[in-house]
Amino acid sequence: MMPGETKKTQVRVRKDLITGTPCLLLEGLNVNPVALNLVSGSKESLDYRIKGLKVRTEEGEFEEKVYLHFSASQPGKKGGRITTIPVKFIVDGKVYRYVSVAVKHGMDIDGRVYLTGLEPGKHRIEFGGSKIRLTVKGELQETDDSLGTGVNGKWHAIIDRGDFVFEFTMHYKVSGKQLTGKMENSWGEFEIYDAKIDGDEFVHKLDYGQNNIYEYKGKLINKNEIKVKSQKDDTVNEFVMKRAAN
Question: Which of 100, 130, 164, 239 is the most exposed place for a label (fewest CB within 10 A)?
Fold first, then answer.
């Protein structure tokens, strides 16, 4: 490491699921974790491989969803320890996000990544040393400037607060003065409620669970952008959602 550089490492204490032996688990971004046996002092590298990348689509209420399916394997003798590893997901040479992958000795564990915010066209995917190419279909929609038709469809946003990056996709449907829709992110899907629309502005709420409720206020600023302010108590985020391909 160079002077001034830092490296984030996560340390957790786990028990082997079969023997109950406590282990100190050291993890870092995109590196193989190491398990330190707290009884014998032995050290074990938890090597892993990502393989079997396949792109699959599923029909959804608002759109056709695109998933990248994969299989994570951990060579070696069979054992009871299961752990999660943060693996770098790269699209067209840039980090798309980190994905938590579950691995276990001598066993393949399947997983999938929901792909959002990709522009139409061909893309190169790199994940855990494996590579695949995919083509995203669709075109950016042309709509008129009124919110009544312009807000319909799919919108993508990234909130970057430095210590936390939140990426999501919104789906809106407008019928007269009624606004319905949902948010999709890495946590799942969340329906909007208490939604109102008036001219080029709208407001609605989202409940992420355990009474974690945010209010969203949006204003259409052009055909393909919505300026949004989300707030919960003293936590305020301001960002722009961009129209995404259907």
Answer: 164
What are the residue ranges of CATH 2.40.128.20 in the chain? Answer: 147-243
Q: Which pLDDT tens digit goes with each residue over 197-242?
A: 887 789 999 998 888 899 999 999 887 899 999 999 888 989 999 9
> Alpha-carbon distance 180 to 97, whole Å?
28
Residue of 77, 54, 81 whose CA lies nearest to 66: 54
pTM of the model: 0.45
Angstrom distance (rounded) from CA 84 to CA 90: 19
CATH class of 147-243: mainly beta
C-alpha separations of 3 from 9, 28, 44, 150 in Å: 17, 19, 29, 51
pLDDT value of position 191: 93
Fold observed for domain 9-136: Immunoglobulin-like (2.60.40)
Give the separation between CA 239 and CA 235, rounded to whole angstroms: 13
Residue whose tokens read 């974690």? 212
Q: Say how far apart CA 48 and CA 58 lie, in whole Å.
A: 28
